[in-house]
Design goal:
With 130 residues, this protein is of the alpha+beta class. The chain has one domain (3-125). It has helices spanning 12-24, 38-46, 67-76, 93-111, 122-125; strands at residues 3-7, 31-34, 57-60, 63-66. The chain has a four-stranded mixed β-sheet with strand order 2-1-3-4, with helices on both faces. The two termini are 14 Å apart.
Length: 130
């Protein structure tokens, strides 16, 4: 389990992002944990990330990435044209992160919060750490 994605478990946009990744991760490489869950909080502490963070976090080979870098690292590993997202890595991180933060700050307003979680199939459920 060397590729873990931490996501906001209350955010509709974040949930849709997880579903997007699941559909394109045919090898089953990624595992998931909500930031609010026990395992998510434990991983945040382990990587010395503020437990109150609401950023998308990607952990690979025991190294944590956040915000735009996390998104780019994940999309680079998906099949198809998503690998082209790597081109955005030439944009300086502070600028990429400003774009990320612009969307992140508005995600609840634009996409709402989840009232309840849908139950994944047993096969997919194994990929969730919470």
């Amino acid at each position: 389990m060397s590729k873990i994605i931490l996501f906001d478990g209350e955010c509709n946009f974040c949930d849709q992002s997880v579903q997007f990744i699941l559909k394109r991760d045919h090898q089953g490489d990624f595992y998931f944990a909500s930031l609010q869950g026990e395992n998510g909080q434990s991983l945040l502490r382990k990587h010395e990330i503020d437990p109150a963070t609401d950023s998308f976090i990607y952990i690979e080979d025991d190294r944590a990435y956040d915000q735009s870098t996390a998104v780019i690292k994940v999309l680079q590993q998906l099949r198809g044209m998503w690998k082209l997202i790597a081109a955005f890595s030439i944009i300086p991180k502070p600028i990429r992160d400003k774009m990320y933060q612009f969307i992140a700050k508005r995600r609840y307003k634009w996409f709402g919060k989840k009232e309840s979680c849908r139950l994944p199939s047993p096969e997919i459920r194994k990929r969730f750490l919470d």
